[in-house]
Amino acid sequence: MHVFIAGFQHETNTFAPTKADWAAFEAGAGYPPYRRGPEVVEVPAGKFTAVKVTVTVREFDQIIWYAPGVGEVKRTVKKNGVEAVMRSLKSFADGKK
């Protein structure tokens, strides 16, 4: 399974008093921050190499981790710097033999 998620962020206000440096793109500042590659996430079912996806709906950030061959392994919701786990994979049995 291949997952490809892309975005394009650029500085459009050429008359701004300051320029955006690379740290501004990594931080996100209201937009999904720059990410590259999967990360390891640990849940009760074990450790999985997963792709992290952040979706902002109104004032909430939903952060979802998807692992190839497994699906969603973890979901959190974040608001005002407070993050709560909403879903976490408890167990997983590979159906392949």
> What order do the helices and strands follow?
HEEEEE
Strand content: 35-45%
> Strands of the largest sheet, in order across it?
1-2-3-4-5
Number of helices: 1
Mean pLDDT over the full residue set: 79
Outline: elongated
- Main β-sheet, in a few words? 5 strands, antiparallel
Q: Which runs of at least 5 residues are low in confidence (pLDDT < 50)?
A: none
Structural account:
By secondary structure, this protein is mostly beta strands. It has one helix at 22-27; strands at 39-43, 46-57, 60-67, 71-79, 82-88. The protein has a five-stranded antiparallel beta sheet with strand order 1-2-3-4-5, with no helix packed on it. It is elongated, with a radius of gyration of 16 Å. The relative contact order is 0.16.
